[in-house]
Amino acid sequence: MERLPLYCQGERRGEVTLALWGPNGARTEIAASMDDPGDGLYRAFLLGERGELALGVLAPEGGRLGVCRRLYNRDVAYLGKLLRGEARRSFRFEETGPCWRETDCPAQLFHSRFLIDRLRPFGRAWWRREESVLLLALPLEEGRPFPLEFLFCLGRVQRVEGKRCVVYAFREEKPVFWPEM
Question: What is the bridge-based pairing of β-strands 101-103 and 156-160?
Answer without folding.
Answer: unpaired
